[in-house]
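Task card 7
Instruction: Convert sequence to structure tokens.
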Amino acid sequence: MLKHIVMWKFKEHAEGADKATNLLKAKALLDACARLSPGTHRFEVAIAQPGLEATYDLILNSEFTDAAALAAYADHPQHVALKPFMGAVREERQCMDYEL
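Output:
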């Protein structure tokens, strides 16, 4: 099993919208990718909540059967298509993959 965690810090304004709007759009785009790979076991997307500690604005917490399943997700055209938007609205991105 392979864990794939990605965290993004968003710009206050980008792509003609404010941070809150872009966060909702990014979450919807990522949520739509939850079933792109048959090897996906967990796929959770969350926006930081007011009043709770968070150093990033958006997180993807996912688990895949193996590296091939993660690659199938990463290389899927629907996932590839959201990358330009995510690149335009993010200030920072952190990623970590590890075996369980």
